[in-house]
Amino acid sequence: MTILDDKIAAFFRPEILKLNAYHVPSAEEMVKLDAMENPYHWPPEMVEAWLDRLRNIRPNRYPDPQPEHLKHALKIHAKVPENMEILLGNGSDEIIQILLMALAGKPEATVMTPQPTFVMYQQLAVSLGLKCIGVPLQKDFSLDREAMLSALDQYRPQIVFLAYPNNPSGNLFDEKVILEIIEKSPGLVILDEAYAPFAQASFMERLSQFDNLLVMRTLSKLGLAGLRLGFLAGRRAWLEQLDKLRLPYNINVLTQITAEFALANAAVFEQQTAQIRSDRTKMYQQLQNLPQVEVFPSAANFILFRVPDADTVFHKLKQQGILIKNLHPSGGLLTNCLRVTIGTPGENEVFLTALKTALTP
Ligand SMILES: *Cc1c(COP(=O)(O)O)cnc(C)c1O
């Protein structure tokens, strides 16, 4: 080992040295179906109107630290109950970070999630020195009610994260079990509704019912992944404290003006997401028709499926210019699982044809 290696090893906590960096593969020239992006751009006249709007931006000034117009538009769009507040984040990833920062330095601070789920909960918890308990889901990716309730008793977690629908499985957890978890939780329960535009199910209306529930949303999966805008909805008393942990200028001027513009044109996104939902049904049926494929139901804009040999299929698809997500390396319930994002009808066709080829020995 060189002296520099020693210095680095002494500087970082062992958990951080062990972490895998969040890996984003290069997708140049590929059919990109790996990251749950909406594949559609905007109509040309909408792009023109947007560019006109951008003329008013003053990049020499700091962004508005509390953009009330944008917050109001988001509340209307997401049907946030009137007596609830929202907190904006640079993507919902930043909201997760803010929530976990609130626990950093607290002795015995514990976070709980089902397993497998969205990797950022654990990634950020570990990087902040927090203990993260993963409770295995059942074989069909539903919540294990008894295991969740007994883990709540045993570990008394300060935060439980539930992705609704779950990523990478795509399913909605049982509403009754979620309600029990909220009732029995000693701390906060965060319902992460990143895929709300595709799910037509939400806990937003239930915010008034529980004082330990917060609902998280993002504009990323709706079709604005490049903007980085997420938000947390809930009681003012919680958000007021969390707001102290937020960097004052976390939402830049381009994002603020573009998000407001996009929400004023919500019909365009409604049409795009309706198309994606209908193409998801078609993709599900076509995957089901393949005898070597086990496909899992999805309420999101992606589908999880299992094949006899995921590594081989993944690489064969890549050779044919198609990038999806290989979850096989995660092991456990995700053994031999792949996740495909719903693209345009053309992309979905290209993917299915390539998949059939990849499944042929
Ligand atoms: C994609 C995703 C997010 C991250 O969203 P950003 O707002 O883009 O940071 C959060 N939660 C889940 C479950 C996701 O799949």
Would you mind describing this structure in some detail?
The protein is α/β, with parallel strands linked by helices and about 350 residues long. The chain is built from 15 helices and 13 strands. It has helices at about 5-10, 15-20, 45-55, 70-75, 90-100, 120-125, 145-155, 175-185, 195-200, 220-225, 235-240, 255-265, 265-290, 310-320, 345-360, and strands at about 30, 85-90, 110-115, 130-135, 160-165, 190, 215-220, 230-235, 295, 300-305, 320-325, 325, 335-340. Strand 5 (about 160-165), helix 8 and strand 6 (about 190) form a beta-alpha-beta unit. The termini are far apart. The structure holds pyridoxal-5'-phosphate. Pyridoxal-5'-phosphate binds near residues 92 and 93.
Summarize the structure.
By secondary structure, the protein is α/β, with parallel strands linked by helices.
Question: Which distinct ligands sit in these coordinates?
Answer: pyridoxal-5'-phosphate
| C-alpha-based Rg, rounded | 21 Å
What is the global morphology?
globular
Largest sheet: 7 strands, mixed
| H-E string | HHEHHEHEHEHEHEHEHEHHHEEHEEEH
Oligomer: single chain
Work out the number of β strands. 13
Biggest β-sheet: strands ordered side by side in the sheet: 2-8-7-6-5-3-4
Residues in β-strands, percent: 15-25%
- Structural class, by secondary structure, is alpha/beta
Q: If helices are DSSP runs of H or I spanning 4 or more residues, what is the number of helices?
A: 15
